[in-house]
Structures are given as structure tokens and as C-alpha cells.
Design a protein that fits this description.
Blueprint: E1 12-16, E2 21-28, E3 31-34, E4 44-45, E5 47-51, E6 54-57, H1 59-63, E7 72-74, H2 84-89, E8 97-100, E9 106-109, E10 114-115, H3 117-136, E11 142-147, H4 153-165, E12 169-175, H5 176-183, E13 194-201, E14 206-214, E15 224-233, H6 238-252, H7 257-261, H8 265-282, E16 287-293, E17 302-308, H9 309-333, E18 343-347, H10 354-364, H11 377-390, E19 406-410, E20 414-419, E21 427-433, E22 443-449, E23 459-466, E24 479-485, E25 491-497, E26 503-508, H12 516-528, H13 530-560, H14 566-588, H15 595-608, H16 610-623
Parallel strand pairs: 1-11, 11-12, 13-18
Antiparallel strand pairs: 1-2, 2-3, 2-4, 5-6, 5-7, 8-9, 9-10, 13-14, 14-15, 16-17, 19-20, 19-22, 21-24, 22-23, 24-25, 25-26
The structure holds adenosine-5'-diphosphate and magnesium ion.
The site of adenosine-5'-diphosphate has 21 residues, from helix 6 and helix 8.
Length: 629
């Protein structure tokens, strides 16, 4: 049999082969996206277990790593293309034995076999290849694979070999920081040279790189991405944070050093998982508590552990300082100052920790890019590089205007637009809002894109919450929402409640997943529906305002009913009923409402209620004469 030279070679996929997690991506006319597994998981733990009856890759292998320690390999990337002697010298702490194989290269000694790091990498790559084929419904034989910027020739060759073993032709290797910049489309819009720092804090390693991007001099050339300097620490990452939390749990449980050594593998495994879970939650909450049920003779059976975010931040502070020292070192290497840096990009799952973001922001004195999921950025960038190689990046949306309007949801499901379509970027806008319920302490900020008037007809870009606003009457809090779209098209939304100073923010890339055709369709839809949409928006606003009026008027009426002329009360009650009926009806079907009639009955009620309000004010002055002066 000869290979069919006419067979389609299939698409080129992008792969981030990480120390802790790996993932596959593709970039088509909708932009880059992760290729998820059938059960929806996006990241694949880079862990492989060699069972007597076959190989287990990914989450299952990770979950059983401690129990099956003698058959499980994790972090094999650390050994790729390295000699065993080198690994010993570096004092790598790995949960398996590293031995010298052919040509002195590092190999992994398991229960009953010895495997090479290339073979382990190949299992991970093959699992990603299967994922990609299932998700795309096509054969996949080619990939762009990312490698750390500091990888030498031997390490790059070993990566290529791992691909070959998995049946993948590695058509290009891209430096991880370059991939991160590609995912954000940095260097594509700018006509000038740009300097970008990529701060990558993963599971077991930390890297920081300075990139220089130069725009092409000729039409048909590509942007030049150059790594000016890299620094880092191959023994610093999220695993260390887990270990610190684990120690804290054991301290709280009163387990002394001797007892710790004697803990069973099962107990250790459970503890490690709990610690990581707590760490995840501390990225979103100020405090977490954990009820631990352990079946170990050395630990109490049930244990309650509480950790606050600030105590966690205290624990990891020395490690964060080490990463910041490396940032200073990399700048010195590149002979640059923080003021020379145009953008800072955060990469790696551990940069989800707010204290990490804060430390980076403080050092570089500018808010870092966080719009893309930090553990997916590198993989997405590999997909972008793949599509550049395939030559199909031409119809991606790379505009210097915002293609669709951007706004937020307001009460009742209407959209307040802050930035209108076709504004040229960079651009910023802000608007003031308030609360609609007495004592409301949290506000949802729902960021939307599109031309229509109602939330349901727009595209949701993200939601965040402004919390811990001190309780105040409705309408009193002063919430300022600011939208900033920078020159790369990244949108930052920032909300602040002025009276309390509480703030929150989110970053998104609005052009992600939008094709030019879609933009056209959304625009023409907005014309088709313009009349109906305006009507709906008007009715929703009327309903919100009318409901507030009805509430105030009926409360005042309860208080002073006895002092009023019964015919006046009767006419007011009639008007209230009218407006209530309109509110109810508009909640059922906006299209059936005559907005002018609704408006007229609301006006009538407002006018008629003036007498009531006068009576109510007079009554309250009588009750509490001091408050009127
Ligand atoms: P690598 O590049 O080393 O393969 P990743 O970028 O996938 O690793 O990062 C994995 C690390 O990120 C793990 O230590 C994991 O615990 C950590 N991590 C993931 N999500 C969060 C989160 N929400 N908060 C804190 N750490 C996180
Ligand atoms: Mg990584």
C-alpha cells in the first residue's frame, strides 16, 4: 500500500504541551477556540499511568497519582531532552526515579519498565489528537506545539520526537510567550514596535519573558516576534501553594512532624486535593472552610479547617516576591525599565490568584491582560499560529473600530449602550447607575454586545458583581461603570460605587468568535427589528418606573387614607388599578401594550397623586416636627 497523495492532510491544530496541563485548539473563521473532550473538559492533565492492561492519560491518571505512585508519571516535560546527570544536579524533586538511559538521557523507572519522557509526552499528545479528531470529525496529522522560550535544541528535538511517536507532524514550534501574544492579537494592529512582558505562573514552573514585536516591513511578511530575555524558576508554581495550604491544614489538625511522615498515601492524596480545592475557592472568595473526613489512624476523623484569603496571601508572599525579583532581573537583562513595557500578559492557572495579579500590576504599574483564560492562552496562540501557517487568517476580524455596540444590562432586561458601533479604538466611556431595591448590597454587571434593545437579543460577553455595597435606599448608591477598549480591542469594564469605594472589574475580547458575516447579520437584524425593539425598550422603562410609583403611592395611601376625601381616595385607587393592570400586562407580552396609553395612565396617576404626597408630608411633619426644618 502507498499513501494516498490526494488525501487531505486535515487541519493543523495547536497544542500547548504543558508541565501540568495540556490542551488542543483550532483557529477558523470564528477565531481561536479550545477543542474540548466529549465530556466537555478543556484541559488535559499531563499525567500518564502505565497499567498492566494499558495506559491511562489525563484526569483519571492524575486522580490516582498518589495511590499508583509507582506506575504514574507526571511533569515529564521537566525531563525532555535532558541528561539524567543534569536532572540530578538541578535537584528536581519528582515522585519517581530518574535513571540514565541511552546517551545518558533522563528516563523514568517504573515498577516493571523504564519509559522515556518522549514516550510519556507522546501519550499526552495522542490523547489530544484523538480529542481533536472527535471534535472536528476529521483526521489530524499536523500540529503546532508550544515550548518554553528557554528550551534548547535537544529539548525542542525531544518535543518533535514526542509528536512523531503520537503520529503528529510538528510543523512549527512556537515559544510559549509568543503564543500568548498571538492569542491576544498583539502585534497585529500596531504599526509600531511593541514591547510585551509575559508572566507565566503554572503548576510547577515560573517563567517571565520580554518580547519585542516588530511590524512587517513588506506587505507579505509576518510580524516578527523576538524573545529579548527570559528568567524564571523551574521549581516554583501552584504546587508550592498547595503544599503551603496542606501544611496549614496539618498544623491546624495538630499533626506533628513524625506523624506527617507516617501518613498513608490515601490520606496524603485526599489532603492535597483539598488544599488545591481551597486554593481555587480563595481566588473567588475572602474565606473558605473545609470539612475533612479522613479515614487515617493519624488524623482525627473529621476536621474543620478555615483559611482566609489574607492569611493565604501571607503564606505565598515570599514566593510572589521571588517572581517579582525575576521580573526585575529579566528587565535588567533586556536593558529596559518598567516604563518601556507596553503590555503585560498573564499566563498560567496560578495567575487566577488575585494577589498574583496585584503583585504584577504594582510592579509594572499597569493593569495586566487577563481577558483570556490564563491556562488556555498559550494553547489558543498555538492555534492562531497554525491558522497563519494554513494561510486562512485573512477574514478574521481585525478592525480598528468596535464592530458592534457595547453596553450593560439595566433593570427589566433592557440594554444601556455605553459605546456605539464603529467608534474607533482606543475609546472610553462611562455612565452612572444606581440600585433599584432598598438595601441592595450587590449589583450584577452584565456586559453585552449588539445593536438590539433587549438583553435576550444581544450577545453576552461576561458578568461580574459589585459586592459589599453598604445598604442604602434605592437610588442612593452612585455606581459608575467605565468601558475602555484599548488599541488591541481588549475591553476592560470597571465599576465603582462612589460612596463606599467598592469596586470590581472584568476584561474581555469582544471580537472573539465573531465573523464579518455575523456582524453584518446582527446589524441588519437591528434595522429589521428597530421599531419593535424601541417599543419594547420604552415599555420596559415605563414598567420599571411605574412599579416604583405604585409602590410609593400605595404606601403613602395606607398611611394617610383616613385624612383624605373618600372620593379622592376612590379615584386614586382606580388610577392605581389601571397602572397595575398595565404593568401586569406588559410583563406577559410587551407587544400587546399600547406604550402611549401606558404612559398616559402613568402620567395621570402621577398628577393625581400630588395631593396625596402633600398630605403625607404634612402628616410626617406632625409626627416628627424636627425633621421638617
Ligand atoms: P502548566 O503550564 O504548568 O501546565 P497551568 O497553566 O495549567 O500549568 O497551571 C496549573 C496550575 O494552576 C495548578 O497549580 C493549578 O492548581 C493552578 N490553578 C488553576 N486554577 C486556579 C485558580 N482558580 N486559583 C489558583 N490556582 C489555580
Ligand atoms: Mg503552561
Amino acid at each position: 500500500m502507498t499513501p494516498d497523495s490526494n488525501a487531505s492532510p486535515g487541519p493543523i491544530i495547536g497544542i500547548d504541551l504543558g508541565t501540568t496541563n495540556s490542551l488542543a485548539s483550532i483557529c477558523d473563521e470564528r477565531g481561536p477556540r479550545v477543542l474540548a473532550s466529549r465530556d466537555g473538559s478543556r484541559l488535559l492533565p499531563s499525567v500518564v499511568r502505565y497499567d498492566p492492561d494499558g495506559v491511562v492519560v489525563g484526569e483519571a491518571a492524575r486522580a490516582g497519582a498518589i495511590r499508583h505512585a509507582t506506575r504514574t508519571v507526571s511533569s515529564a516535560k521537566r525531563l525532555l531532552g535532558r541528561s539524567a546527570a543534569e536532572c540530578m544536579r538541578n535537584g528536581l524533586q519528582l515522585p519517581y526515579q530518574v535513571v540514565a538511559g541511552p546517551r545518558g538521557l533522563a528516563c523514568i523507572k517504573l515498577e516493571d519498565q523504564t519509559v522515556t519522557p518522549q514516550e510519556v509526552g507522546a501519550h499526552v499528545l495522542a490523547a489530544l489528537r484523538t480529542r481533536a479528531e472527535e471534535s472536528l470529525g476529521q483526521t489530524v496529522t499536523r500540529a503546532v506545539v508550544t515550548v518554553p522560550a528557554y528550551f534548547d535544541d535537544a529539548q525542542r528535538t525531544a518535543t518533535r520526537d514526542a509528536g512523531r511517536l503520537a503520529g503528529l507532524d510538528v510543523v512549527r514550534m512556537v515559544n510559549e510567550p509568543t503564543a500568548a501574544a498571538l492569542a491576544y492579537g498583539l502585534g497585529e494592529r500596531s504599526a509600531e514596535e511593541r514591547t510585551v512582558v509575559v508572566y507565566d505562573l503554572g503548576g510547577g514552573t515560573f517563567d517571565v519573558s520580554v518580547l519585542r514585536m516588530s511590524p512587517p516591513e513588506e506587505e507579505d511578511e509576518e510580524t516578527l516576534y523576538e524573545v529579548l530575555a527570559t528568567a524564571g524558576d523551574t521549581r516554583l508554581g501552584g504546587d508550592d501553594f498547595d503544599q503551603l495550604l496542606m501544611n496549614r491544614i496539618l498544623d491546624d489538625a495538630g499533626v506533628d512532624q513524625d506523624a506527617r511522615e507516617g501518613l498513608s498515601l490515601e490520606a496524603l492524596q485526599a489532603l492535597r486535593r483539598c488544599a488545591e480545592q481551597m486554593k481555587f475557592e480563595l481566588s473567588n472568595r475572602d474565606q473558605v472552610s473545609l470539612d475533612l473526613q479522613l479515614e487515617d489512624r493519624l488524623l482525627p476523623r473529621s476536621l474543620r479547617v478555615e483559611v482566609t484569603r489574607s492569611s493565604f496571601e501571607g503564606m505565598i508572599q515570599p514566593l510572589l516576591e521571588r517572581t517579582i525579583k525575576a521580573c526585575a532581573a529579566v528587565l535588567a537583562d533586556a536593558k529596559l525599565q518598567t516604563s518601556d513595557i507596553d503590555r503585560v500578559v498573564l499566563v498560567g492557572g496560578s495567575t487566577r490568584i488575585p494577589a498574583v495579579r496585584d503583585a504584577v500590576e504594582t510592579f509594572f504599574d499597569c493593569p495586566p491582560y487577563t481577558a483570556l483564560d490564563p491556562d488556555e492562552v498559550v494553547g489558543l496562540g498555538a492555534g492562531v499560529q497554525a491558522s497563519i501557517l494554513e494561510g486562512n487568517r485573512s477574514d478574521m476580524l481585525l478592525l480598528d473600530v468596535i464592530p458592534l455596540s457595547l453596553g450593560i444590562e439595566t433593570v427589566g432586561g433592557a440594554v444601556a449602550k455605553l459605546l456605539t458601533r464603529n467608534s474607533s479604538i482606543p475609546v472610553r466611556a462611562s455612565e452612572r447607575f444606581s440600585t433599584s431595591i432598598d438595601g441592595q448590597t450587590s449589583v450584577k454587571i452584565h456586559v453585552l454586545q449588539g445593536e438590539r434593545e433587549l438583553v435576550d437579543d444581544c450577545r453576552s460577553l461576561g458578568i461580574f458583581h459589585l459586592t459589599e455595597i453598604p445598604p442604602m435606599p434605592a437610588g442612593i448608591p452612585r455606581i459608575e461603570v467605565e468601558f475602555i477598549v484599548d488599541a488591541d480591542g481588549v475591553l476592560s469594564v470597571h465599576a465603582v460605587e462612589r460612596r463606599s469605594g467598592r469596586q470590581a472589574s472584568i476584561q474581555v475580547v469582544p471580537s472573539f468568535g465573531l465573523t464579518p458575516e455575523e456582524v453584518d447579520r446582527i446589524e441588519s437584524d437591528s434595522f429589521t427589528h428597530a421599531r419593535a425593539d424601541m417599543h419594547a425598550h420604552r415599555v420596559i422603562d415605563l414598567r420599571v418606573n411605574a412599579a416604583l410609583d405604585v409602590k410609593w403611592i400605595s404606601e403613602a395611601l395606607e398611611r394617610v387614607r383616613d385624612e383624605l376625601d373618600p372620593t379622592y381616595v376612590q379615584s386614586l385607587t382606580g388610577l392605581l388599578d389601571d397602572v397595575r393592570a398595565q404593568i401586569r400586562l406588559s410583563g406577559e407580552d410587551v407587544t400587546r401594550i399600547d406604550a402611549d396609553a401606558f404612559h398616559a395612565s402613568k402620567e395621570l396617576l402621577d398628577k393625581e397623586s400630588i395631593r396625596l404626597h402633600e398630605a403625607a408630608i404634612a402628616a410626617s411633619l406632625r409626627e416628627d416636627p424636627g425633621s421638617g426644618s
